[in-house]
Amino acid sequence: MTRKLLLYLDTNLFLDLTRNRRNEFSRTLFQDIRKNKYNVVTSTFTLLEIVQEEQERAFAERELIHNKRSFDEIRIKIHERDLSSSALAEVYDSAWKELKPFIETEKIGVRYLDEEGWDVAFEFQKKMNISASDAIHLAVAYIETCDIFVTSDQQLQKIGSIFFKPSVLIFSSPSELEKKVESFEERARKKQKIKQRKKLKQAVYSSQP
């Protein structure tokens, strides 16, 4: 390949990082990103989702451990969470600590939707059984002409793979990424060979008297 592939990372990949989850494939992916193996982007919405998820986790842990609430009680109150200012700051700082090395060094680019991008997001949600947040992620990946959309969400992988042609956007889990990259590169090599053969034929025909 003459260029690095452009990946879009979904929110669940970053949660593996911020929560230090033992997902060896996500860990390998972030190691490869540090080594500049790929070009990578995500959405500003991703950062908001990460903070929201971490706020909800902090609230659930407090209610479960300290207030002895049941899981059903926590689920009902999760969107009415009442974290203190210090707790909110702690959650934000904790999440940003893991993201900062990637964002500030631009190893992962953060993109936002312009007016055209929002139109694309609306169009995707109109045509697919996806959430508003997934529509935003897909719109950013599409507008940025990403090669592969990496997510642990199996349902989104399935829906996206049906809706998008592989030539437009490929979907992959972290565990399948290496195979998807190899497949992408093989298709690119075949296309290059076909182009070279066409050029050769044109050159031969043009040289004939």
CATH topology: the name is Rossmann fold
Number of distinct beta strands: 5
Main sheet: strand order: 3-2-1-4-5
For this structure, what is the CATH class?
Answer: Alpha Beta
Under CATH, the homologous superfamily reads 5'-nuclease
Instruction: Give the domain tally.
Output: 1
Q: How is the main sheet built? A: 5 strands, parallel
Q: What Rg do the Cα atoms give?
A: 21 Å
User: H/E element string?
Assistant: EHHEHHHEHHEHEH
The number of helical segments is 9
Q: Which regions have little confidence, pLDDT < 50, spanning 5+ residues?
A: none
Helix content: 55-70%
Secondary-structure arrangement, i.e. CATH architecture: 3-Layer(aba) Sandwich
Net shape: elongated
Overall mean pLDDT stands at 89
End-to-end C-alpha gap: 37 Å
Tell me the structural class: alpha/beta
Percent in strands:
5-15%
